[in-house]
Specification:
Elements: H1 12-45, E1 56-58, H2 59-65, H3 71-80, E2 81-84, E3 101-104, H4 111-124, H5 132-141, H6 145-156, H7 162-179, H8 184-237, H9 241-246, H10 249-288, H11 292-339, H12 341-346, H13 350-403, H14 408-449, E4 471-478, E5 488-495, E6 500-505, H15 511-515, E7 526-531, E8 534-535, H16 541-545, E9 548-551, E10 560-561, H17 562-566, H18 575-584, H19 588-593, E11 601-602, H20 611-624, E12 629-633, H21 641-658, E13 661-665, H22 669-672, E14 677-682, E15 685-690, H23 692-698, H24 700-709
Length: about 725
């Protein structure tokens, strides 16, 4: 699977941008629980007051605080607060009381000052059910009594936690503000609105980062897999028959489509979700460690989820390998049935083929159902674990809140962080379920990409010689891969420019195999095929095939138009060249009768034209190229005798004019009897070669073939 990620190299800028955007999204998402915690704790619970040190104090409160402050605390108080009189421009706007106040200017408030403020506020609120004025009068008369009052207050608050004391101090600050006539409801609303707007802004940034990273991840994965498909197609184009024997057509189609799609999906998830989940999970995990009383619950849940992931991975991995093989098999069955539909109907074997398809389809369906059930079980189990953890957090958190060891907002923040951690592990678990199938697909893709074709270009290719050159088959022998015997044995003959060479022989004698050595569809086992005295293996395949106009046994047309099929040989061909090719191939007549002429649509495989028309268009396509070598591999068999004769006559004129070398593989004696040279093959060896008249005299194999097709009179011997 890791090999697939090298296709991300051209998109490294996008990958960096995705990582940055995902990181930004994670940081934004993780900031939201803290803001929510502050809104609950400070905005709702504390009325929008965040500091236990009051920003404004009445002159009376400031005077009374001095009873409980040391000399150092009084000095610190004087440096932290400034006295402001009513009517002064610096007088706080929210204070309605028309008396002197003390305004906080330096936030370096000491613990002694906070303690003094708390004691003063507690006395003012009626601590111990004693009239506050009596206590202050007593302290005015006897300042030393302040120590005793402080000790009594501390003994009462001895069981308070730091959070409890902070809550009490903040509530006393709120009471002080109310006593000064400040609008505490406005303070609360302003705080909630301010924090809420920040939360909305952060949420908006998180959403934008998520959308941008998703877009870039999808675009990057699509681009990488586009390049992967290009490479697969290019590699398959370079395959020889030996490589095609290793990979069936159905398997190659599956690898190029379904397997690449699986890899694309996992790359998208890796760039987006797999980056996001660990970042979110690990960062959230550090956040929850602040709440040690609840962290153990989350730890056990994470261990349980990891164990579930490992079990699922070990169960599904072998099955996903089988799934892809079954997809190959299903594609193979479908392809065979579609291509052989007429034969199936002709032999009334529809039921047999239906059973064959149903067997392949049912096997794939059963295995997919099994895998889907495994995945279906994982989701509710993960949800159950998350719900159980949430209940435990609320239960334990409620007890901590009751004991004063935790704030409500902190519990809610921990709950959200825990949810982030569990969802992250759940996402990773789902990814781990999908990775096995994608890993299998990636392995199948790289089996194709890493297959080196047997036929390849030389490291130091030679240039193809210009001008008119001779083609020489020099003691050529050939054996198919893994075969025990040679198909061709010691074949030697020469084809000169302007010469037409015919190959004839019984079925299986090696005619097509021999002619396919010239464009290097196969490479010779022994000997060499030479062009202009140079072994064709010393040319690049592209340069070699630029010399050749090839017409296969089975005429193949591509979807498009008549013109696009002709220009397939040479996209820069002139209109005159196309017109001449149609005339020579005897295709001009039926093309001119078509409603749209050269722009007449051609269906896939040329199914909307007859076999003879398809063959003539295939010949016209080769002739459009105006090559130096033409190969007609049994291409005249689909033509009637009259069309065959006219085509050969026009072709001979064209060859004489262009001085091209022509190779014709044929079964009909009438097609080749006027050729310059006829090569007779028998069981892979040359049984005779020469002109028709010579072979009729001294080649028994040729005589037998000729007399099996034509009478002696037709052959000119009576």
């Amino acid at each position: 699977m890791t090999k697939a990620f090298r296709y991300l190299r051209p998109f490294w800028l996008s990958v960096i941008a995705i990582v940055a955007l995902v990181f930004a999204q994670v940081q934004a998402d993780l900031a939201l629980p803290d803001y929510m915690s502050r809104i609950v704790t400070y905005g709702i619970q504390y009325g929008g007051i965040t500091s236990s040190a009051p920003e404004v104090l009445s002159d009376a409160t400031a005077s009374r605080m001095k009873f409980f402050m040391s000399a150092e605390d009084e000095e610190a108080f004087a440096s932290s607060y400034r006295k402001v009189s009513a009517g002064d421009p610096a007088f706080p706007a929210g204070v309605t009381a028309s008396r002197d106040v003390w305004v906080l200017e330096n936030t370096a408030v000491t613990a002694g000052m906070e303690k003094a403020f708390l004691l003063t506020s507690l006395i003012n609120s009626g601590m111990g059910d004693t009239d506050p004025e009596m206590i202050w009068a007593m302290l005015e008369a006897n300042p030393a009594a302040a120590q005793q009052i402080a000790e009594q207050a501390e003994s009462r608050m001895d069981g308070y936690t730091d959070d409890n004391l902070k809550a009490v101090r903040i509530m006393m600050v709120k009471s002080e503000y109310a006593a000064l006539g400040m609008n505490t409801e406005k303070i609360q609303n302003d705080y909630i609105l301010h924090e809420g707007l920040i939360m909305l802004g952060i949420a908006l940034l998180a959403s934008l980062a998520a959308m941008a990273s998703s877009y870039l991840a999808a675009r990057t994965a699509t681009g990488a897999c586009r390049n992967m498909r290009d490479d697969i197609f290019a590699r398959v184009e370079s395959f020889s028959a030996e490589e095609f024997s290793r990979f069936s057509t159905a398997s190659l189609i599956t690898r190029t489509t379904n397997d690449v799609q699986q890899v694309q999906m996992i790359i998208t998830m890796m760039l987006r979700i797999v980056l996001f989940a660990p970042m979110m999970g690990l960062t959230s995990l550090f956040k929850v460690l602040r709440y040690r009383n609840l962290a153990s619950v989350l730890g056990w849940a994470v261990l349980l989820m990891i164990a579930l992931m490992i079990i699922t991975y070990s169960v599904t991995m072998p099955k996903f390998r089988i799934v892809q093989k079954m997809v190959d098999r299903l594609n193979l069955v479908i392809r065979e049935q579609l291509e052989g539909m007429l034969v199936i109907r002709a032999f009334n074997n529809q039921e047999t083929e239906e059973k064959r398809f149903d067997e392949a389809n049912s096997d794939l369906t059963k295995l997919n159902i099994y895998l889907n059930r495994v995945m279906a079980v994982i989701s509710p189990l993960m949800t159950f674990i998350m719900s159980t953890v949430s209940i435990l957090i609320i239960w334990i958190g409620a007890r901590q809140i009751d004991l004063g060891a935790m704030q409500i907002g902190d519990m809610m923040a921990f709950l959200q962080y825990s949810t982030h951690v569990l969802i992250s592990f759940m996402i990773v678990a789902m990814i781990f379920i999908m990775i096995p199938r994608s890993a299998v697909s990636a392995k199948r893709i790289f089996e194709v990409l890493e297959t080196e074709p047997v036929i390849h270009d030389p490291q130091n290719p030679k240039e193809v010689p210009g001008g008119e050159q001779t083609v020489l088959f020099d003691h050529v022998s050939f054996r198919y891969p893994k075969a025990e015997m040679n198909v061709l044995e010691d074949i030697t003959f020469e084809a000169k420019p302007g010469e037409t060479v015919a190959l004839i022989g019984s079925t299986g004698s090696g005619k097509s195999t021999l002619i396919n050595l010239l464009p290097r569809f196969f490479d010779v086992t022994e000997g060499a095929v030479r062009y202009g005295g140079t072994d064709i293996r010393e040319f690049t395949q592209n340069d070699l095939r630029d010399l050749i106009g090839y017409v296969p046994q089975k005429g193949i047309l591509f979807s498009g138009t008549v013109e696009s099929n002709l220009r397939y040989a040479d996209e820069n061909a002139s209109d005159e060249a196309i017109e001449n090719a149609l005339k020579v191939s005897q295709a001009e007549e039926f093309v001119s009768r078509m409603e749209h002429g050269l722009q007449e649509p051609i269906a896939q495989g040329g199914t909307n034209v007859s076999g003879g028309q398809k063959q003539r268009l295939s010949i016209a396509r080769a002739l459009t190229k105006q090559a130096k070598i033409f190969i007609f591999d049994d291409t005249f068999s689909a033509l009637d005798y009259q069309t065959d004769a006219r085509l050969r006559e026009a072709l001979n004129k064209m060859i004489a004019r262009n001085r091209s070398t022509v190779f014709i593989v044929a079964q009909r004696i009438s097609t080749i009897m006027h050729c310059d040279r006829i090569i007779v093959l028998d069981q892979g060896r040359i049984a005779g070669q020469g002109k028709h008249e010579e072979l009729m005299k001294n080649c028994q194999v040729y005589q037998e073939i000729a007399l099996s097709q034509l009478s002696r009179k037709e052959l000119g011997y009576e």
